[in-house]
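Supplementary material to the annual report.
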Amino acid sequence: MGNKSLQKRNLIVEAARDVFFRCGYKGVTMKDIVEACGISRGGLYLYFSNTKELFEAVLEQENKTLTSVLESPAVKEASPGEILLMYLEEQKKDILKKKGNLTAATYEYLFENKLVNADTPIKKRFDENVRALEKLIIDGVNEEWMVCESPAEAAKNIAYAIEGMKVTAQTTEITAKTLDNQIAYIMGTLGMVIKD
Amino acid sequence: MGNKSLQKRNLIVEAARDVFFRCGYKGVTMKDIVEACGISRGGLYLYFSNTKELFEAVLEQENKTLTSVLESPAVKEASPGEILLMYLEEQKKDILKKKGNLTAATYEYLFENKLVNADTPIKKRFDENVRALEKLIIDGVNEEWMVCESPAEAAKNIAYAIEGMKVTAQTTEITAKTLDNQIAYIMGTLGMVIKD
Amino acid sequence: MGNKSLQKRNLIVEAARDVFFRCGYKGVTMKDIVEACGISRGGLYLYFSNTKELFEAVLEQENKTLTSVLESPAVKEASPGEILLMYLEEQKKDILKKKGNLTAATYEYLFENKLVNADTPIKKRFDENVRALEKLIIDGVNEEWMVCESPAEAAKNIAYAIEGMKVTAQTTEITAKTLDNQIAYIMGTLGMVIKD
Amino acid sequence: MGNKSLQKRNLIVEAARDVFFRCGYKGVTMKDIVEACGISRGGLYLYFSNTKELFEAVLEQENKTLTSVLESPAVKEASPGEILLMYLEEQKKDILKKKGNLTAATYEYLFENKLVNADTPIKKRFDENVRALEKLIIDGVNEEWMVCESPAEAAKNIAYAIEGMKVTAQTTEITAKTLDNQIAYIMGTLGMVIKD
DNA sequence: CATGAATGAGAGTTCATTCAT
DNA sequence: GATGAATGAACTCTCATTCAT
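Predicted assembly:
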C-alpha cells in the first residue's frame, strides 16, 4: 500500500470513527461509512471488507492514540497515591464525555465476537491497566502511603468498578459528583484521604 | 385482551426470551422470533410491533421472575454480613452462567435507547440494589459487624464492580476463582473476613 | 404449498422458461426473471433461491411435457423402421426450431454443474433414449427389417450424432435438407431405405 | 505493435487460456484474467477490451497450434482406413482429457454469439474436417477399402457424432471403452473391421 | 383474531471501465 | 506505454411490514 493509499485509509478510519461514535457498532452499515467519508461504494471495499474490519482498525488506532497516565513516564515524580488519583480523574473525564467515546460500540462489538480471539486489544488493555494498578498499590504499600492486604485483588476491583461505571454511564445519567464520591471511596479503601 | 390472548402473548415472550439469550438484541429480527414461536408472521404483529417492544416485554417478565436475596424476606434471620455474602454469591452464579443470561442483549438494548427513558427497569433494579446494599451496610455497621465510613458510596462501588464483572464476563473468560477473590476482597473492604 | 401457491410457482416457471429460451442460462439474473413474471423481488425468492433452482424446475417441467415417440404407446402399430423414422423426424423438428429450445441453456447449465450429480434428468433422458433406440433396432433386426451387428453401439451412435446436430445447430445454420440427408444416411446404416 | 508488445500480448493470451480452461467462458471476468497474468488492470485493457476479444484470441492461437492428422502430410503413406482410425483415436484422446480442453468454454462462447459471424473459426474447422473426412472416404471407396454410398453424409455423420461425444463428455462421465466401441462401430458402418 | 403470501426498500458485494500519474 | 486507485452500475438477498382471505 502506497503512501497515498495509507493516507486514504487513515481518512476512512477517521470518518468511520465518527460514525461508530454516533451510532454504535451493530447499527453501522458500509453505506453509512461510504457517505461519511465521501468516497465511492467500491472504493471503501478496496480498503475494508466489512464493518468488523473497519471497527478493528478504529480500535487499533484508538489504542495507539490513547496512552494512560499509568503508562506515561512523565509521572515518575509523583507518589503512587497521586498517580492513582490522576488515573481515576482521567477515567472520570472519559466517562463523562459519554457521546465522545467508543464504549458502547466496543461492547457491541465484543458481544458479537465473544472469545473468538481471547487476545483482543481490549482485554490486553484491561490487563495492562490491572497490572499497572497493582504495581502502583504495591509501591504505595511499600512506601507506607497505602494500606492493602491483597493488591492484586484491589487492582482488579478498581478496574471492574471503572468498567461498571463506564457501561452504566452509557445507559443512564451519571454525574461528576457521583464519580468524585466513588474516587474518594476507592482511595479510602486503600487508606488514603483526598484533600481538596 | 382475553385470557387466551394473554396465553399466546406469554408464549411469544417465552420464545423471544430464548432468541435474545442466544443472539443478543440487535441481531434479532422479527423473522427470528416468528420462527422461534411457530406463529404466523402477521400474528406476531398483533402483539408486538418490533423487537424493541418484544425485548421490553422480556425484560419486564424477567424482572418479575428474578428476586434478589436482598429483597427476599426469607433471609431475615441472617446477619447483614451473611446476607451480603449470599448476595455476592448469587451474583457470582449469574455471572458464571454467561450463555444463559441477558446481560449482552440488555446492554445492546440500552446502548440503542440511551436516556430516552430515564426510568428503565434496569436502572430501577440497579438503584434498588444499591439502596438495599446501603441499608445492609448501615445495619452491619450499627450492629458492629462491619466498618464503613460511607455506606452509600460503598454500596454504589459494589454495584459498579459487579456490573463491571458482568460485562467483562460477556467478553472474556472469567473464572470462579477470580470471582471468589473479588468477593473476599469486597467483604474485606467492609472489615469482614470470610471463613471457610 | 397451497393450490394457489402452486399456481404461482407454475407461472414463475413458465416465465422463467421464456427467459432461459431467450438468454441461455448463465446470462440470466434473478432480476430478469422478476421482470419477466411481473412479481416482486422478494416474491420470487419465496419460491426459488437462485437461477439454478429455477432452471432445474424448468427442466423438470420440460421433461414432463416432452414425451418422445419412443415412449408413446400410440405407435405400437408401426414397424420398428417407421418408429425410428418418426423419432428422427421429431428430433429434426426440435433442432430446426433453434430459438425455441433449451439446448444452449441446458449445456451452459451442465458445464457449470459438471458431474456434481451424476444422475441429472438430462443424462437420464439420454440413457432412456439410447435404451429405447437399442430395443427398436433389436426388434428391427429380429423382424428382419434391419441389419445391424451391434445394436447397442448403433443406438449410442445415433444418440451422439443427434446431440452433435443439436449443439451445432445452436451455433451455426443447419438446414432441413442437411437433416433430411442425415436421417437418410442413418437409416441407411441400418440397411433401410427411405421411400418418398 | 512493437515486438515487446507482441510478447506481452502472447503472455496475456497464454494466461487467459488457462483461465478459460478452468472456468469456462461466461464465468470469466476481466479481473480473473488480470490476476492470472499478474498485469495491471489498465494494462490488460490496452490489449483487449473484454473477455470476448480475449477468448477469440485464445481460439485463434489454439487453432494455430492444433493440427489434425487429417491435415498432416506425414500420414501420406497410410491407407485411408488407417488415417481415419488415427483421426478417431486422436479425437478420443481429446475427449478423454475432459479438464484440459476448451469444449465447454467454446460452446458457451458460441451460444452467446449465435450466428453473429457465420464464419467463426470453429465452423471453419468443422467444415474442413468434414471435407477431409469426405475425401478420405471417397479414396477409401475408390481403393476398395471401404463401402459407402454417400461419402458426404457419412463424413458429416461422423463429425456430428464426434461433436456429440465431445459435449456429452463435458457433462457426464464417458469411458475409453465406450469410445473404443464407437470407433469400431463407425469403422464398421464403412465396411471396415478393426483388428487388434 | 389469525394467516402467510406479497411487497419493496435497502444492505452487501463485485466488476467493467476510466483516468490521473 | 503502464499502473492501480477510484467510480458507479448492477446484482443478490433479506426483512419489516402490509393485507386479502
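The longest helix of chain C spans residues 121-142.
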